[in-house]
Amino acid sequence: MRSLEYVERERVQRLNSEPIRSGKYVLYWMQAAQRAVGNPALTFALALAREHRLPVVVAFGLTPRYPEANLRHYAFMLAGLRETAAALRERGVRFTLRIGDPPQVALALASEAAAVVTDRGYLRHQRTWRAEVATKAPCAVFQVETEAVVPVELAYPREAASAAVLRRRIQTLLPQFLRSLPELEPSVPAQDLELPGPEADPAGDVLAELAIDRSVPPVDLPAGTEAARRRLARFLEEKLPRYHLDRNDPTKDGTSGLSPYLHFGQISPVEVALGAKEVGGPGVEAFLEELIVRRELSFNFVLYNSRYDAFAGLPAWARDSLRRHANDPRPALYTPEELEEGRTDDPLWNAAQTELRRTGKIHGYMRMYWGKQFLRWMQDPEAAFRLALHLNNKYALDGRDPASCAGVGWCFGLHDRPFPERPVFGRVRPMTGAGLRRRGLLEAYVARWQGGLP
To answer: Given a cut of 80, is residue 438 above it in pLDDT?
Structure first.
């Protein structure tokens, strides 16, 4: 297949045994990689279409019932999709936005397609969607790994117990996959194609048509590939040289701020990594550890652990230890409502929760502290896990993501080692406000969000 000359063969999976048939177009069913550049699935679809002398149609299925999504997430995503739609039109690629169940959107358009290409999702419902399309489509269905630098099964064929296990494998494979792919142009224009079924105008007020949860307001953060690239450029110039020194200081804006853009597939992780390597310097190793190893460890986790979003998915030693200490006295007990509203006696935690609610993010270091305190303030460790993941997914722009499941899980012992036994935490790594305050870095952080330390 000549189309594999343009994309690494290991990124492409054939999902069914149907043939590439005569059709009006090659369909790229876009869901995870919501971008018009640096997109291996789009490159493969364009190459496949060139090989068969067909146009390319890109379709996005917009469901108002996406698990745990609300107005904050939909507003950011649709702003990015408007930019993607315009960029594809400029390249002569037909883009169509359809409101409906994503696999049904794909199958309706697959009825006239020669082949279907899709990007990859790792969460349970995302895999179910792609399996449904592969089973029911009347033509060949290909899945292309777009959001991992190194294809997940190739990096490690089972659940990795820690980052160290995955790091060794990924480092040997990076030279093979850390490279830019060609940006192909369509060989047959598709702008005038008539497509079956109703379309939504991505430039219109699509949000008004959606029956979604509107309880969480949007945040003031520009969306889309160009915004992501501007943020990346500033990070590479101003922050990457000191990333290894500043990333764990919540009073400094030392992180990249790219996680929402990566979550919605608005920028390629390969583009980000290549930019960092080109700049070089002492911060690169620490940054690539987070961008590639830690992020792709979360892909590995949700792919191989069917209980990734539940307390039952944690390591046995952590579950057992936390349960043994479930009846330990707590310094205070709070209701879920008090925690959601940031009404505890800990101004530091309240500041982190306020930052999350107002901006859709928590500083990465503070998120670890934030997540661990649920164990101190709730008697049941399983209920603590559920609430931490729920609040993260509800308010964080990058929530509802493999990294969310792994990040919250880490606070409860995932991908970590046992520590000496202690009250409440058992053998799970503790993290206390006293330890953070001793660093003398947090007064400004608390003052910004909560009015100062007592």
So the answer is: no
Spell out the domain ranges in the chain.
2-146, 148-180+225-304, 311-450
Q: Angle of helix 381-395 relative to helix 347-359, nearest 10 degrees?
A: 40
Alpha carbon of 16 to those of 5, 75, 95, 136, 246: distances in Å?
Answer: 21, 34, 25, 9, 48
Question: Is 61 within 8 Å of 29 (Cβ atoms)?
Answer: yes
Full strand arrangement of the beta sheet holding 25-30: 12-14, 140-144, 113-119, 25-30, 56-62, 94-99
The mean per-residue pLDDT over the stretch 146-156 comes to 98
With a cut of 70, say whether residue 387 has pLDDT above it: yes
Contact 189, 94 (CB under 8 A): no
Q: Print burial letters for 323-338: b (CB count within 10 Å at least 16), e (below 16).
A: eebbeeeeeeebeeee
Q: Across the chain, how many H-helices and E-strands are there?
A: 21, 6
Choices 1.25.40.80, 3.30.300.30, 1.10.1740.10, 1.10.10.10: CATH for 148-180+225-304? 1.25.40.80
Stated as kind and residue range, the H or E segment containing 48 is helix 40-52
Single pTM value for the model: 0.96
DSSP per-residue letters across 97-138: EEES-HHHHHHHHHTTEEEEEEE---SHHHHHHHHHHHHH-S
DSSP 330: P
Tokens at 423, concatenated: 């009250």
Task: Please state, in angstroms and rounded to a whole number, the distance separating the CA atoms of residues 38 and 122.
Answer: 19
Second CATH level (architecture) for the domain 2-146: 3-Layer(aba) Sandwich (3.40)
